[in-house]
Each structure stands twice: as structure tokens, then as C-alpha cells.
Amino acid sequence: MKQIDHIGIAVESIAKTLPFYTDVLKFTYLKTEIVESEKVKVAFIDCGNCKIELLEPLSNESPIAKFLAKKGEGIHHIAIKTADILGDIRFLTDHNVKMINETPKRGAGGANIAFLHPKSTQGVLMELCEKE
Fold this sequence. Notes:
about 25% helix; eight-stranded mixed sheet; globular; alpha+beta
């Protein structure tokens, strides 16, 4: 766990939001994909030192739809890059950090991910992200 991998931003519409990041801020759009397990569409943007993931819900059952209904558009999570997600989960739980996912699951871009509970991180949803 040495650096930020990406910042996830919940949005109502990627199509309406993407031009701000690409046309105004001049960041580079990489790709869009669907993550069926989370019922979300994800657009990846390269910001140079990290990435932004724009997260658009595909159904009302999506965790992102629930987030938007409760809090509105904005930062959803901060992802930390890891090379050993299982070891880092053990380390965090050994240090009394509550995990939402004690077992990694498949996320966007084929990464293995696990979320830390915001009650352990001063209200910030954090994600471990291990890419192959």
C-alpha cells in the first residue's frame, strides 16, 4: 500500500460528466466498461499521477445508485494500489480495521478489490486495488 491508484466519483451520467474531464481539464479518456456484478458503468480517465473512475449506476439496485440517492454526485471512494491484497487485508484486520470485503472480489479493469469500512477510516470509503 504505497500510492493512490484511483479516485471513484459517482455520477448520474458519464456522457454528461466526461467532457469536463477531457475537454476542460484536458485529462485523457482511457475506456469505458460495464461491471455487471456491481451494476455500474465505469469510465477510466488518466490524470497523470493517478486515475479517476466515473461510476454511473445501471439500475436502482446498484450501490452507486444508493450512494447518489443518499449523498448526490461526488467522491465515492479512494483506491489504494496494492501488490498483495490478501496480505494487506490480513495486516489491516490485525490492526483492527473493519473490512467490508474480507475476501477480494473482481472489480473494474479485472482488478482484485476489497473495501475498507468507512467506520475505520474516518468516514472515507477506501478500496484496496490489486491489478495483475
